[in-house]
Write a structure and sequence with these properties.
This protein is α/β, with parallel strands linked by helices and about 300 residues long. The protein has 12 helices and 11 strands. The protein binds alpha-D-ribofuranose and calcium ion (CA).
Length: about 300
Protein backbone atom coordinates (compact mmCIF):
# COMPACT_ATOMS: atom_id res chain seq x y z
CA UNK A 1 0.00 0.00 0.00
CA UNK A 2 1.53 3.37 -1.06
CA UNK A 3 0.41 6.31 1.06
CA UNK A 4 1.23 10.01 0.65
CA UNK A 5 0.23 12.68 3.17
CA UNK A 6 -0.19 16.29 2.00
CA UNK A 7 -0.36 18.60 5.01
CA UNK A 8 0.30 22.00 6.62
CA UNK A 9 1.83 21.24 10.07
CA UNK A 10 0.23 22.78 12.23
CA UNK A 11 -0.30 21.12 15.57
CA UNK A 12 -3.12 18.81 14.50
CA UNK A 13 -1.28 17.84 11.30
CA UNK A 14 1.69 16.88 13.49
CA UNK A 15 -0.59 14.76 15.70
CA UNK A 16 -1.94 13.12 12.53
CA UNK A 17 1.62 12.26 11.42
CA UNK A 18 2.32 10.80 14.87
CA UNK A 19 -0.90 8.76 14.66
CA UNK A 20 -0.08 7.37 11.18
CA UNK A 21 3.50 6.42 12.15
CA UNK A 22 2.43 4.89 15.49
CA UNK A 23 -0.15 2.78 13.61
CA UNK A 24 2.64 1.59 11.27
CA UNK A 25 1.19 3.22 8.15
CA UNK A 26 4.12 3.26 5.71
CA UNK A 27 4.35 6.81 4.32
CA UNK A 28 6.06 7.03 0.91
CA UNK A 29 6.41 10.79 1.39
CA UNK A 30 5.00 13.87 3.04
CA UNK A 31 4.24 16.89 0.86
CA UNK A 32 3.74 20.26 2.51
CA UNK A 33 1.61 23.26 1.63
CA UNK A 34 1.06 26.77 2.95
CA UNK A 35 -1.95 26.96 5.24
CA UNK A 36 -1.62 26.98 8.99
CA UNK A 37 1.72 28.66 8.36
CA UNK A 38 3.99 29.67 5.43
CA UNK A 39 5.23 26.66 3.48
CA UNK A 40 8.84 26.97 4.71
CA UNK A 41 7.54 26.60 8.27
CA UNK A 42 5.10 23.78 7.51
CA UNK A 43 7.96 21.94 5.74
CA UNK A 44 10.40 22.58 8.62
CA UNK A 45 7.75 21.28 11.03
CA UNK A 46 7.11 18.12 9.00
CA UNK A 47 10.86 17.37 9.13
CA UNK A 48 11.00 18.07 12.87
CA UNK A 49 8.08 15.81 13.73
CA UNK A 50 9.52 12.98 11.61
CA UNK A 51 12.85 13.40 13.44
CA UNK A 52 11.10 13.12 16.81
CA UNK A 53 9.46 9.92 15.56
CA UNK A 54 12.79 8.55 14.33
CA UNK A 55 11.36 8.45 10.80
CA UNK A 56 14.21 10.07 8.89
CA UNK A 57 13.61 7.90 5.84
CA UNK A 58 10.30 9.57 4.91
CA UNK A 59 11.13 12.31 2.36
CA UNK A 60 9.46 15.73 2.66
CA UNK A 61 8.66 17.72 -0.50
CA UNK A 62 7.91 21.41 -0.14
CA UNK A 63 4.88 22.68 -2.09
CA UNK A 64 2.86 25.76 -2.80
CA UNK A 65 3.70 29.06 -1.13
CA UNK A 66 0.05 30.07 -1.31
CA UNK A 67 -3.37 29.35 -2.81
CA UNK A 68 -3.89 29.13 -6.60
CA UNK A 69 -5.31 32.63 -6.88
CA UNK A 70 -6.07 34.01 -3.41
CA UNK A 71 -3.64 35.52 -0.89
CA UNK A 72 -2.57 33.34 2.04
CA UNK A 73 -4.09 33.93 5.47
CA UNK A 74 -2.38 31.64 8.02
CA UNK A 75 -3.74 30.27 11.31
CA UNK A 76 -0.67 31.37 13.30
CA UNK A 77 -2.97 32.66 16.08
CA UNK A 78 -3.91 29.03 16.79
CA UNK A 79 -0.75 27.07 15.96
CA UNK A 80 1.78 29.54 17.40
CA UNK A 81 4.63 31.46 15.77
CA UNK A 82 6.59 28.23 15.07
CA UNK A 83 3.46 26.42 13.86
CA UNK A 84 3.86 23.66 16.48
CA UNK A 85 2.42 25.39 19.54
CA UNK A 86 5.74 27.21 20.19
CA UNK A 87 6.96 23.90 21.60
CA UNK A 88 10.61 24.51 20.62
CA UNK A 89 11.16 21.02 19.29
CA UNK A 90 14.76 20.53 18.11
CA UNK A 91 15.62 21.74 14.58
CA UNK A 92 15.43 19.04 11.88
CA UNK A 93 18.54 17.07 10.87
CA UNK A 94 17.44 16.97 7.21
CA UNK A 95 16.30 19.35 4.48
CA UNK A 96 13.35 19.08 2.12
CA UNK A 97 13.84 17.30 -1.21
CA UNK A 98 14.73 19.40 -4.26
CA UNK A 99 11.63 18.48 -6.31
CA UNK A 100 8.50 20.61 -5.91
CA UNK A 101 5.68 18.80 -4.06
CA UNK A 102 3.08 19.05 -6.84
CA UNK A 103 5.57 17.82 -9.45
CA UNK A 104 6.56 14.97 -7.14
CA UNK A 105 2.91 14.03 -6.49
CA UNK A 106 2.09 13.97 -10.22
CA UNK A 107 5.26 12.04 -11.13
CA UNK A 108 5.03 9.53 -8.25
CA UNK A 109 1.41 8.62 -8.92
CA UNK A 110 1.96 8.46 -12.69
CA UNK A 111 5.11 6.32 -12.56
CA UNK A 112 3.94 3.89 -9.88
CA UNK A 113 2.58 0.54 -11.01
CA UNK A 114 0.26 0.24 -8.01
CA UNK A 115 -2.35 2.77 -7.11
CA UNK A 116 -1.71 5.39 -4.41
CA UNK A 117 -3.64 6.34 -1.28
CA UNK A 118 -3.71 10.11 -0.88
CA UNK A 119 -4.45 11.87 2.43
CA UNK A 120 -4.79 15.68 2.50
CA UNK A 121 -5.05 17.61 5.77
CA UNK A 122 -4.27 21.11 4.50
CA UNK A 123 -5.46 23.39 1.71
CA UNK A 124 -5.71 21.43 -1.58
CA UNK A 125 -3.36 23.63 -3.62
CA UNK A 126 -0.65 20.98 -4.20
CA UNK A 127 -3.19 18.31 -5.13
CA UNK A 128 -5.01 20.56 -7.61
CA UNK A 129 -1.70 21.47 -9.28
CA UNK A 130 -0.67 17.80 -9.50
CA UNK A 131 -4.01 16.90 -11.13
CA UNK A 132 -3.51 19.76 -13.59
CA UNK A 133 0.06 18.68 -14.44
CA UNK A 134 -0.97 15.10 -15.27
CA UNK A 135 -4.84 14.86 -15.33
CA UNK A 136 -4.79 11.11 -16.04
CA UNK A 137 -3.35 10.32 -12.60
CA UNK A 138 -6.81 10.67 -11.00
CA UNK A 139 -7.46 7.13 -12.25
CA UNK A 140 -4.54 5.87 -10.15
CA UNK A 141 -5.77 7.21 -6.83
CA UNK A 142 -6.86 4.15 -4.83
CA UNK A 143 -8.37 6.23 -2.02
CA UNK A 144 -8.40 9.95 -1.31
CA UNK A 145 -9.03 11.13 2.26
CA UNK A 146 -9.55 14.84 2.87
CA UNK A 147 -9.88 16.85 6.07
CA UNK A 148 -11.93 19.86 5.14
CA UNK A 149 -15.26 21.56 4.68
CA UNK A 150 -18.41 21.82 6.74
CA UNK A 151 -21.63 20.31 5.40
CA UNK A 152 -24.28 21.18 7.98
CA UNK A 153 -24.99 17.45 8.47
CA UNK A 154 -24.55 17.58 12.27
CA UNK A 155 -24.91 20.32 14.93
CA UNK A 156 -21.12 20.84 14.65
CA UNK A 157 -21.05 21.33 10.87
CA UNK A 158 -20.70 25.15 10.83
CA UNK A 159 -17.71 27.19 9.64
CA UNK A 160 -14.54 27.88 11.63
CA UNK A 161 -13.33 30.81 9.49
CA UNK A 162 -16.66 32.29 8.41
CA UNK A 163 -20.13 31.17 9.50
CA UNK A 164 -20.23 28.96 6.42
CA UNK A 165 -16.65 27.97 5.59
CA UNK A 166 -13.86 25.76 6.96
CA UNK A 167 -10.18 26.84 6.98
CA UNK A 168 -8.66 24.43 4.40
CA UNK A 169 -11.41 25.04 1.84
CA UNK A 170 -11.62 28.77 2.67
CA UNK A 171 -7.86 29.12 2.10
CA UNK A 172 -7.97 27.77 -1.46
CA UNK A 173 -11.52 27.57 -2.83
CA UNK A 174 -10.31 27.23 -6.46
CA UNK A 175 -8.13 24.22 -5.62
CA UNK A 176 -11.01 22.67 -3.67
CA UNK A 177 -13.42 23.31 -6.55
CA UNK A 178 -11.01 21.60 -8.97
CA UNK A 179 -10.49 18.58 -6.68
CA UNK A 180 -14.25 18.08 -6.22
CA UNK A 181 -14.62 18.13 -10.03
CA UNK A 182 -11.73 15.67 -10.54
CA UNK A 183 -13.82 12.50 -10.37
CA UNK A 184 -11.72 11.06 -7.51
CA UNK A 185 -14.80 10.89 -5.20
CA UNK A 186 -12.83 11.66 -1.99
CA UNK A 187 -13.76 10.56 1.52
CA UNK A 188 -14.19 13.90 3.25
CA UNK A 189 -14.07 14.42 7.03
CA UNK A 190 -15.34 17.89 7.83
CA UNK A 191 -16.12 20.01 10.83
CA UNK A 192 -19.46 18.19 11.19
CA UNK A 193 -17.36 15.46 12.85
CA UNK A 194 -14.19 17.23 14.00
CA UNK A 195 -15.81 20.18 15.84
CA UNK A 196 -17.66 17.76 18.15
CA UNK A 197 -16.25 18.29 21.68
CA UNK A 198 -16.72 14.54 22.17
CA UNK A 199 -13.65 13.92 19.97
CA UNK A 200 -11.54 16.89 21.08
CA UNK A 201 -8.80 17.53 23.64
CA UNK A 202 -10.75 18.74 26.68
CA UNK A 203 -9.55 19.20 30.28
CA UNK A 204 -10.01 15.52 31.05
CA UNK A 205 -8.11 14.34 27.97
CA UNK A 206 -5.37 16.97 28.31
CA UNK A 207 -4.76 15.67 31.82
CA UNK A 208 -3.64 12.29 30.49
CA UNK A 209 -1.57 13.55 27.53
CA UNK A 210 2.19 13.07 27.78
CA UNK A 211 5.37 13.58 25.76
CA UNK A 212 5.50 15.38 22.42
CA UNK A 213 1.71 15.46 22.00
CA UNK A 214 1.27 17.34 25.27
CA UNK A 215 4.20 19.66 24.41
CA UNK A 216 2.74 20.76 21.06
CA UNK A 217 -0.92 20.89 22.18
CA UNK A 218 -0.43 22.77 25.46
CA UNK A 219 -0.27 26.38 24.20
CA UNK A 220 -3.28 26.24 21.82
CA UNK A 221 -5.25 24.17 24.35
CA UNK A 222 -4.69 26.69 27.14
CA UNK A 223 -5.50 29.59 24.78
CA UNK A 224 -8.74 28.08 23.45
CA UNK A 225 -9.79 25.89 26.40
CA UNK A 226 -10.25 23.02 23.92
CA UNK A 227 -8.21 21.63 21.01
CA UNK A 228 -9.99 20.08 18.04
CA UNK A 229 -8.33 17.01 16.50
CA UNK A 230 -9.35 17.78 12.91
CA UNK A 231 -6.47 16.01 11.14
CA UNK A 232 -6.06 12.98 13.45
CA UNK A 233 -9.78 12.26 12.98
CA UNK A 234 -9.39 12.49 9.21
CA UNK A 235 -6.45 10.05 9.19
CA UNK A 236 -8.39 7.80 11.59
CA UNK A 237 -11.04 7.45 8.85
CA UNK A 238 -8.28 6.05 6.61
CA UNK A 239 -6.81 3.70 9.25
CA UNK A 240 -10.11 2.66 10.89
CA UNK A 241 -12.91 3.32 8.35
CA UNK A 242 -15.32 1.03 10.22
CA UNK A 243 -15.72 3.49 13.13
CA UNK A 244 -17.05 6.14 10.72
CA UNK A 245 -20.23 6.52 8.71
CA UNK A 246 -20.12 8.23 5.30
CA UNK A 247 -22.78 9.22 2.77
CA UNK A 248 -22.37 10.03 -0.93
CA UNK A 249 -23.44 13.52 -1.95
CA UNK A 250 -22.99 15.92 -4.83
CA UNK A 251 -21.07 18.87 -3.37
CA UNK A 252 -20.21 22.11 -5.11
CA UNK A 253 -17.70 24.63 -3.80
CA UNK A 254 -18.46 28.35 -3.65
CA UNK A 255 -15.89 30.67 -5.26
CA UNK A 256 -17.55 33.81 -3.98
CA UNK A 257 -15.88 36.05 -1.43
CA UNK A 258 -17.00 36.86 2.10
CA UNK A 259 -18.93 34.35 4.19
CA UNK A 260 -19.48 32.01 1.22
CA UNK A 261 -15.78 31.73 0.26
CA UNK A 262 -14.99 27.98 0.04
CA UNK A 263 -18.44 27.03 1.29
CA UNK A 264 -19.70 23.48 0.54
CA UNK A 265 -23.13 23.38 -1.13
CA UNK A 266 -24.69 19.93 -0.66
CA UNK A 267 -27.35 18.46 -3.00
CA UNK A 268 -29.64 16.89 -0.41
CA UNK A 269 -32.32 16.00 -2.94
CA UNK A 270 -29.96 13.53 -4.64
CA UNK A 271 -30.66 15.00 -8.08
CA UNK A 272 -27.00 15.42 -9.13
CA UNK A 273 -24.54 12.50 -9.35
CA UNK A 274 -22.45 12.22 -6.18
CA UNK A 275 -18.82 13.44 -6.29
CA UNK A 276 -17.79 12.95 -2.65
CA UNK A 277 -18.31 10.67 0.33
CA UNK A 278 -19.00 12.85 3.37
CA UNK A 279 -18.53 11.67 6.98
CA UNK A 280 -21.62 12.21 9.14
CA UNK A 281 -20.86 10.06 12.21
CA UNK A 282 -17.92 8.65 14.20
CA UNK A 283 -17.71 6.28 17.15
CA UNK A 284 -16.28 8.85 19.56
CA UNK A 285 -15.09 6.38 22.19
CA UNK A 286 -13.35 4.14 19.65
CA UNK A 287 -11.58 7.11 18.03
CA UNK A 288 -10.31 8.51 21.33
CA UNK A 289 -9.15 5.09 22.58
CA UNK A 290 -7.24 4.37 19.36
CA UNK A 291 -5.75 7.86 19.02
CA UNK A 292 -4.65 8.25 22.65
CA UNK A 293 -3.17 4.73 22.72
CA UNK A 294 -1.20 5.43 19.53
CA UNK A 295 0.26 8.80 20.52
CA UNK A 296 1.08 7.62 24.04
CA UNK A 297 3.86 5.60 22.42
CA UNK A 298 5.70 8.77 21.32
O1 LIG B 1 -10.18 23.61 9.69
C1 LIG B 1 -9.26 22.74 10.27
C2 LIG B 1 -8.15 22.42 9.31
O2 LIG B 1 -7.44 23.61 8.95
C3 LIG B 1 -7.09 21.49 9.92
O3 LIG B 1 -6.52 20.72 8.90
C4 LIG B 1 -6.07 22.45 10.46
O4 LIG B 1 -4.77 21.87 10.57
C5 LIG B 1 -6.08 23.51 9.40
O5 LIG B 1 -5.24 23.07 8.33
CA1 LIG C 1 -4.09 20.83 8.59
Amino acid sequence: MKVILDCDPGVDDALAIMFLIAEKVKLEAITTVAGNHEVDKTSYNALRILDVLGEDRVPVYRGSKGPLTRSLVTAEHIHGSDGLGDSNLPPPKRKVEKEDASEFLARFVDENTDKVHLIATGPLTNIAKAFRYRPWIVKKIESFTIMGGCFFLTPFGYGNVTKLSEFNFFTDPEATYYVFKSGTKPNVVGLDITQDPGVAITDQIFGILEGVAKRIVEKPFRKLGIFHLHDPIAVASFIYPDIFKFKLFNVSISLYDGDERGMCIVDRRGIYSPNANIAYKVNRREFLLKFLKAISKV
